[in-house]
Amino acid sequence: MRQTLGISERRACRVLGRHRSTQRKPPQGREDEARLTADVIELAREHGRCGCRRAAALLRRAGWQVNHERVARIWRREGLKVPHKQKKRGRLWLNDGSCVRLKPGQPNHVRSCGFVQDRTSDGRACRTLSILDGHAREALMIRVGRRLNSTDVVDALTDLFIQRGPPRFIRSDSGPEFTAQKVRDWIELVGSKTACIEPGSPWENGHCESFNARFRDELLNGEVFCSLREAQILIERWRKHCNMDRPHSALGYRAPAPEVFIPVDRRPTMH
Q1: CB–CB of 253/247 below 8 Å?
Q2: Geometric angle at alpha carbon 263, from 259 and 267, rounded to 5°
Q3: Pairing of strands 169-172, 193-196
Q4: How far is CA 37 from the centre of its chain?
């Protein structure tokens, strides 16, 4: 344009009322843009509550060399819905000024327990007991049943004690299933301590409350269970996905317990 009219490009575009970017070479885009877009849409379809940062972490695990900014551009361009970011909350204190929040310092330090209520398609109630390791953010167990009482709590904790040993603390709410005398006596017998939160203070069991919120949002609200057995199978499959595949922001967008593969040539030989 400058050679044709003898004036600068800036002045000519101002006179003609056109933006200067119209005189540039149109961007061609990357060769892998279509494949990446298809993978992003597939992740959004499979994990409906997955945001662009978590999608980027899953793509990198699948072999893509991509950052979350590029995924975010595709996310907006395709009109995918990004969940609203939760506002940060300040530290919560009791009236006497003391904070009763027990922070896990190492694996097997604090295990958190909590119940979630749901129903099967026939209208009958079903209940789930979630048990988490607060340090690793790992869902150790989700027990599903029509009714879960203090005996079921002892049975679930016993199974975990046999597999992983007793923790130092077991944190739960003040429900009768956790405060029953036989539960307290049994926990004391194996060498652990109870850490029941104050009534009406769910934030003191924040790890379990956060997990149960994701559990309801990502699975329970989107599934119709035709039977108790179906609920047990689907919930156990989601628990394994949450431990092995789902990136966790508190762990640097790594999975709490990713599956490890040992190459055949590196496996120890038997003598």
Answers
A1: yes
A2: 105
A3: parallel
A4: 23
Q: Which residues contact 26 (CB under 8 A, 6 or more apart)?
A: none
What is the distance between the alpha carbons of residues 209 and 219, in angstroms, rounded to a whole number?
15
For the whole model, what pTM was predicted? 0.61
Per-residue pLDDT tens digits for 33-67: 888 888 888 887 777 667 778 888 888 888 888 88
Q: 13, 23 in Cβ contact below 8 A? A: yes
Task: Give the separation between CA 244 and CA 101, rounded to whole angstroms.
Answer: 28
Beta bridge partners of 258: none
Nearest-angstrom CA–CA distance, 20 and 153: 69
- Which tokens in the block code for residue 76? 């907006």
What phi and psi, each to the nearest 5 degrees, are found at residue 23?
A: -95, 5
| Per-position b or e across 114-129, b if 16+ CB within 10 A of its CB | bbbebebeeeeebbbb
